[in-house]
Predict the 3D structure of the following.
Amino acid sequence: MLGRAIILTVSLTVLWLLLSGYFDKPLLLGFGVMSVALCVALAVRARVLDAEGAPTGMMPRVFLYWWWLFAEIGKANFIVARQALAVEPKLSPKLLRIVSPTKTKAGLATFANSITLTPGTVTVDLEPGHMVVHALTEALADEAAINDMGRRVAAIEGRGG
């Protein structure tokens, strides 16, 4: 748990510095240090620095997954933009029930959020083991592609921890 607390401290510090942009104001840096310390202390006290709450082992694979997801978002954006600009859009909304291959709540949430981040698809219901997805067009209602996304998330969490 000490290692996860250290990683959380470093991560929050870097995030705070990048988002605040203050590197030369002692008072604001002090507030940043206090806020990071408070967040880490609360995480330790709440006992959320376990393998699921702070999945440090899966971090390298998560970054590779983000690049893949970014490309998928770009492809879906193109499909949605084409339909939005079409004189007669060919919308065919569908609801799909997708079985999730993920093993953890974090994996299920990552899978559902990845679907929602992809333009033209939204996760409308989420339960352990499956979800209901709304897709705007036939091309976006591709169950094989959605299942591939689920397999990628499951691969990340399967070896992480």
